[in-house]
C-alpha cells in the first residue's frame, strides 16, 4: 500500500492544501499509468464550452479508466493536469478538489492543444490494490 509523503517530511511547514508532495509505493505495488483523459462528453464525444463541464467530464472519464483497471480515484498517487489557459486554473482546481480529497501529488501545465475546443486534459499514476 502506498504511503503519503507529507509537506513537513520535506522540510516545508505548509504546502498547497490541494495536493501532496508525493507518495511512496510498496515493493509489490502494481501501478497504472493512464493516458490523457479529456473533457469530452462520453456519450456524444462533444466538448462542452464551459471549462468547468470539461473538467468534470475529464474526471469522470478518468474514473471510468481507473475502474476498468480495478482501481479508483482513492488510489491515485500522481496527477498531471493540462489546461489551455492559465485563467482556467481556479475553476479546474475547485472541481479537482471535489474529485481528489486525498490530495495526490499533482502538476498543472498550461499547453496549446491541437483542437481549440479542448480546455482540460489529465493523466495519472494509480496504485492497483492487491486482490484478496
TrEMBL record:
GO CC, any one term: cytosol
Coiled coil regions, renumbered to chain: none
Pfam families: Ribonuc_L-PSP
InterPro entries with a match to the protein in the record: RutC-like_sf, YjgF/YER057c/UK114
GO molecular function: deaminase activity
PANTHER family: 2-IMINOBUTANOATE/2-IMINOPROPANOATE DEAMINASE RIDA, PROTEIN HMF1-RELATED
Family classification: Belongs to the RutC family.
Record protein name field: LADA_0B08790g1_1
Gene source species: Lachancea dasiensis
Amino acid at each position: 500500500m502506498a504511503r503519503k509523503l507529507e509537506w513537513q517530511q520535506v522540510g516545508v511547514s505548509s504546502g498547497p492544501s490541494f495536493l501532496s508532495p508525493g507518495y511512496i509505493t510498496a515493493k509489490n505495488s502494481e501501478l497504472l499509468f493512464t493516458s490523457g483523459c479529456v473533457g469530452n462528453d462520453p456519450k456524444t464525444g462533444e466538448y462542452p464550452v464551459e471549462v468547468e463541464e470539461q473538467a468534470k467530464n475529464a474526471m469522470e472519464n478518468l474514473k471510468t479508466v481507473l475502474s476498468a483497471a480495478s482501481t479508483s480515484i482513492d488510489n491515485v498517487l500522481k496527477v498531471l493536469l493540462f489546461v489551455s489557459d492559465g485563467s482556467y486554473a481556479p475553476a479546474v482546481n475547485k472541481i479537482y478538489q471535489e474529485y481528489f480529497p486525498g490530495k495526490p501529488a499533482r502538476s498543472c501545465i498550461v499547453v496549446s492543444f491541437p483542437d481549440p475546443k479542448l480546455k482540460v486534459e489529465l493523466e495519472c499514476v494509480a496504485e492497483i490494490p492487491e486482490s484478496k
